[in-house]
Structure formats: C-alpha cells, structure tokens
C-alpha cells in the first residue's frame, strides 16, 4: 500500500480472538509496517460499542454549547484540568517550531484523578491534582459518560500498547510497568468554523506531533484532520464510521529507537460547520 495517499485501516479483532502469541504475529507485523512508515491508522473491529461514541459526542456538544460564564467556572486550573476557551492556546513543539497564531479550538480536559489526599498531590508533583466538572444540574450525564468512555478506551489502549511491545520483538507485557499509574488526557475538542481561505499560519490546531505514547482519536463527520506523509505531503484523514484513529507519539518513537515514527498532523476546518473530536492521550 502507498502510505503517501491514504491512512490505512487495521482490523484488530485478533486481539480478542487470539489463543496464543502466534495468533497475534500477523497483526503485530502489520502494526510495525504501518507505524514505521506513516504513524497513523484507523483501527476497526475494536470492541467498543458504537453507542458510547454517540453518547460522548452528545455530551461534548452539550458542554461546548453551555453559556460561556458556566464554562468559565471550571476554566483550566494549575493542574491543566478543566475548560480551555477558544483561541487561547498555541503549540510550542520543538520539532516543528512554535505556532504563530492561537488554535481555533476549545477543549474540556479530563485527566487521571489525583485528590488532595494523594501522595503525589501532597508532594506537589507536576499535573497531580483534581479534575473539574461542569454543573451536574446542567449536565447530569456528563461525568458518568466521560468516566465510562475513558474506562472502555483504557482497556483497548492497554492491549494496543502490548501489541506494540510484541511488534518490537519484546514480551507482550514488556511495557506494562511504564503504565502502572499513567498520566492520561481525555479532551473534548471543539473547532469553530473557519473561512474557505485560511489566513496564513491559522489552524484549528497547528502542525505538531503528539508527545505521549499513543493517541486514540474519534471524530465527527466534518473532517479537517490532516497528516504529513514521509514524502512531505499533507493528506486528509476523513471520518470512518466505527473507526478509531490511532497514532504513535514521541515517547513511543524514543522507546522504539526511532523505528516507530511520530507523525506531524494538523486540523483545518473549512467545512463551514462546527467540528468535534475526542482524543485520548
């Protein structure tokens, strides 16, 4: 397959069906091939119930359409949790430089929970703190939906991490100790419509690589995500019904001694519509 034309699709049903490591060898080889050449793929037959995607996108829309003063009650705190208003963030990525203009997007950010009795909070460890939630009276299903979605994706993510270990010639469980108590982000991303002709250096999210290990992304039907191929060509990553986009980040690239790549990507929303996506880092 020519990975300079389109993002590949990978059926991961063998993870659930395998009865031995030998059953996973073809899938592991496929992962190594794809993620050493493009770093992005749709995964399908992943076992996540379709209604969970419907539920969380509905909660995202409800949240982002709350009055601004309600969202500002949980504006992002010193632990990076909460609401990030539209056009208030820029990306400073060492490999790609600093974005010249703010991203035309807003976010609600949920991270791993660290309460005030946790030793990490008491020690003042960076990003160790409590999450912030919108009013339960306004969004009664918001918190349980997000926590359930994160739990389901965490189970899938653990298996994908193990598959990458196997693809790199390691024991299937070799990377588990890295993720005993991992930092994770679930973001409800909102992109405002942009004009057909984009001002220079103006993006929904500017070109960047993800700095973590893996990212699992679901997006609505609007589109706008683009990936930079190895021949330096930007290609679209259109929505795929039932597919989860999985991309590798800088940390996995380092762990793999640069055999797995971390691919630049960006978002430009010229649809004339609002766009929603949900990345889990």
Structure description:
This protein is α+β, with helices and mostly antiparallel strands and 281 residues long. It is built from seven helices and 14 strands. It has an eight-stranded mixed sheet with strand order 1-2-12-9-14-7-6-3. A four-stranded antiparallel sheet has the order 8-13-10-11, with no helix packed on it. A two-stranded antiparallel sheet has the order 4-5. The two termini are 27 Å apart. The mean pLDDT is 89.
Instruction: Please report the number of helical segments.
Output: 7
Q: What overall geometry do the principal axes of the alpha carbons give?
A: globular
Query: In angstroms, what is the radius of gyration?
Result: 19 Å
> Average pLDDT, to the nearest integer?
89
Q: What does the largest sheet look like?
A: 8 strands, mixed
Number of E-type strands = 14
Low-confidence parts lasting 5 or more residues at pLDDT below 50? none
| Strand line-up of the largest beta sheet | 1-2-12-9-14-7-6-3
